[in-house]
Amino acid sequence: MATAAGALAPPAVQAPSGVWSWLTTVDHKRIGTLYGISGMSFFVLGGIEALLIRSQLAVPNGDVVDADRFNALFSMHALTMIFLGVMPLGAAFFNWLVPLMIGARDVAFPRLNALSYWFFLAGALMLNASWLPGDAPDTGWFAYAPLTEAPFSTGRAMDFYTVSLIILGTSSLIASLNFIVTIINLRAPGLTMFRLPVFVWMTMIVSWLLVLSLPVLTVGLVQLYFDRNFTTNFFIQEGGGDPILWQHIFWIFGHPEVYVLILPAMGIVSEVLPTFARKPLFGYAAVVFAGVAIAVLGFAVWSHHMFTTGLGPVPRVVFSATTMTIAVPTGVKIFNWLGTLYGGNIRFTTSMYFAVAFIATFTIGGISGVMHASPPIDSQQQDTYFIVAHLHYVLFGGAIMGIFSGIYYWFPKFTGRFLSESIGKLHFWLFFIGMNLTFFPMHFLGVSGMPRRIYTYDAGFGWETWNFVATVGAFTIAAGMLTFIWNFFRSLREEPNAPDNPWDAPTLEWATSSPPPEHDFDAVPLVRARDPLWHDRDNGLAQPEADPNEHIHLPPPSYYPLLIAVGFALMGIGALSHLAVLALGVVVVVYGVWGWVLEPTGPEPAAGAH
Amino acid sequence: MRLDLLRRRRLIATAAILVLGLALAACSDPQSTVNPKSDHADTINDVYIIVFWLALVVFVGVLGATLALSIWFRERPGRVANQFHGNRRLEVVWTLIPVVILVAIFVPTVAAISDLEPDDEVDLPANAIVIEAIGHQWWFEFRYPGLGIVTANELHVPVDTPVRVTLKSDDVIHSFWVPQLAGKVDMVPGRTHAIQFTPNEARDEAYLGQCAEFCGTSHANMRFRVFVDDRATFDAWVANETADAVPVESLSALAQEGGALFTSYVLAVGATPCIGCHTVKGSLASGVIGPNLTHVGSRSTLFSGIRDGFEGAESADRVQRELERWISNPDDIKPGVTGRPNGGMPAWGELLSTEQITAIAAYLRELK
Lengths: 610, 368
Prior knowledge:
Strand order of the largest sheet of chain B: 3-2-1-5-8
Number of helices of chain A: 18
Mean pLDDT of chain A: 94
Strand content of chain A: under 5%
Number of strands of chain A: 0
Oligomer: heterodimer
CATH architecture of the largest domain in chain B: Sandwich
Helix content of chain A: 55-70%
Distance between the termini of chain B: 73 Å
Strand content of chain B: 15-25%
Largest interface: A-B, 94 and 92 residues
Shape of chain A: globular
CATH class of the largest domain in chain B: Mainly Beta
Radius of gyration of chain A: 24 Å
Distance between the termini of chain A: 12 Å
Structural class of chain A: mainly alpha
Number of strands of chain B: 12
Largest sheet of chain B: 5 strands, mixed
Structural class of chain B: alpha+beta
Shape of chain B: elongated
Number of helices of chain B: 7
CATH topology of the largest domain in chain B: Immunoglobulin-like
Low-confidence stretches of chain B: none
Order of helices and strands of chain B: HHHEEEEEEEEEEHHEEHH
């Protein structure tokens, strides 16, 4: 117990409000909301970019946008969807759910958590600020040297790319370390590692992937920045560098990144399926170990992005083997999800629609992935629309379907309100039909030899029909998104009416109120088995009662994370403009760190409460 | 209930047939990846067919299972979910099934990788044709070192003859890809890659190729053609290509005027003249930055495969207009050409009179 005053003070019931409270918040739930709203906004932006791309390609010789604008659009579409859409939406779920699922009152380092969000926002805004001078990155998200080097990429576009990705990478790195520490240290009593919800496992695996892969990208980005600005020649052949080296660096990051995008969705689906099938996840251990195996193998497959770059036959054979091997743990997951459906009494909510559709659409992406794991086949499919079809089945059919399944599932927990099921099902069908209409024909386009990243094509290649169909599909997805936005705002206007555990779900986040209080749990929950709430229900047990004498220590709000992020952003702007701005940024960062270190974080917590 | 299921099954079967039909339709498209016309493309296609059928089985199996389980185990009054946590034996089985499928894909893959390796230059069959392809933003340069030919954007090769193409790049990464003849291999600055294939079907229609690695503004406009000729047609083409350009005296008056402009040392103040970048063999023009134009009038396409070229007398007006438009402002047809980092082409419309441009276009058109 802390001071007597602390013991008498009731837990904070009145959450602070106003803009300032959001700018200084260190509450994982609010940070999750910030991530969610930002991620969803950028998802819409990336979607608008996709609609422009599809409009341009709807008919041969389209003239909606010109060549350079098109190249910027497809580059920014990928960067936006990957770094500013799917990753922060994943982070929104991590932030909201990890502490709730492990019975904690916050993450291990709440201020670092805020810092990671503000870094994310700074990097996201900086990347998109490149549109303003008309200098948006236009060499693809993969940015292959030497096209990105000074002679071929004039202007500031690629510097916007390197600087903002470094800031975004720092954000993810901070968040990942925070989640690893949180999951290892802050689990509720009885919550052993093999009782952890699969979603929490996937969060930890994703965090490890990011911690191990992001530094590689950062090194590459710094090298590219130095090449462009200080003539270091890391990737320039004439200077003794090697353009292929960039590809190795990029994909050693880039392939684990694919699993960073998909594993959270796999985690979400692994929570949703058991709840609505009303039975435990089939083969829990296998699903967890398959996730770990995918992550480990994910570091051994990067060169399958480079089968056509003149690698010798031996690396092609080896990387083909490792790539195909990934299909085994992935298959295990798919079969275990099907095993979860088997014997169930499946309640088909909107969330469940998305989760079951995820199994189907993600599987299609997995199958096409195995096809070009074979280098000879890849030599025909690489850089064609077949790959575009494949990656969108994985990222839209996988990540996005999973994320929306999660949104419909946890929305009552996040807001205390339900999303409309009938509007939700309309949303689902528009998404499901739209995505298949958009991406399935791309397989045919690829087989017919249509390369990716072309802003125009002539009639007569047999590409007209399917391109038009794909464009219709893209607008169908957009209609689905509008439906969702309508559903979202419609729901927010309603009175909160969600009970604690509306779905009769088994995990700890459903043991507290909807939405949870600022301190998450009135009493630290007790875990007696995997799927603890089902175990309690079936055995007539109850969660511990709140102790009115417990002092719940919550970290006070802090503006230093925001300040440091502003300083870091200034350093980035300086790197793009003038040394003086960079110096100012350094001063702000140093001041922010100084203030952070000396900032009082409230009384010491009671022993055992962390 | 039973009827409902049957209907669903029929729906799935119809969909599968539809998908198959559409996949097969892709075969006849001109840039199709599944209509092989060489040993190389055949080898790839053989692996593809194995993988395609296995993929289809998995596709139907998993999607069918998902659908079936969703229907069979949907919520019903009185139903209680069966509480079990797994089944060790089943899990072992479905770990092994993918392994078996993958081995079935991997073995032919390895065999194909080995088959597709190009021969070392010294081990080539005596009749092999060796070609050097160099990628430029945004066109392909083709050299036949053994025959003394330098040309652009159009390859001619004799049927049933091994062709070895060495691949280089002058600026950024490009990729050499003619789907019906060979899978793609990248052209990387500072490296020399090679690809080898033996085309097995001569035809008048060209095999279409396209740059497959994003290479900047006009990546979409970087296309090329491969003509697989019977021996006599090939020999005739070689004879024409190795010859000097048509003597300027034998051209029309307008073309002669254009020739004089094309080969002048100073065409306009502040701009590199035509001969600074282009070669017309037999004239003063011997530049090596842009495409060799010695026989440009005989090519079947213009501007790296994005406009039809000479197709007989009736095409003369059209080709003339396209060339005039190009010379006036190449960006108008292929964006980015004037700003090319390794030597942009001037927009001559700002520097020359319309009459001068008309004359130069006539000259190029008559360079058969």
